[in-house]
Specification:
88 residues; alpha+beta; S16 Ribosomal Protein, Chain: A; five-stranded mixed beta sheet; 5 strands
Length: 88
């Protein structure tokens, strides 16, 4: 099973809001997921996202691949917490 860490849209029309989820790569964008590890609100000023860095690191060690957007968020969150994130 190819596990991905990606965004799931939950916002309404013209008001985007996202959850950072761990999901099977074959499931649809807004479909079934394994675990929710954060949120992202692009209409808000910084800081506009929250993420559980420890859970993200756990899933990455299990083989999950973050999307490009989530990878950049994880780097920012790790820098703020002074924890290195090891992405493949």
């Amino acid at each position: 099973m190819a596990v991905r860490i990606r965004l799931k849209r939950i916002g309404t029309k013209n008001v985007p809001s996202y959850r950072i989820v761990v999901a099977d790569g074959r499931s649809p964008r807004d479909g079934r997921f394994i675990e929710e590890i954060g949120t992202y609100n692009p209409q808000k000023a910084d800081p506009n996202f929250t993420v559980k860095v420890d859970r993200a690191q756990y899933w990455i060690t299990k083989g999950a691949q973050p999307s490009d957007t989530v990878r950049s968020m994880l780097k920012k969150a790790a820098k703020a917490q002074q924890q290195p994130i090891k992405t493949a």
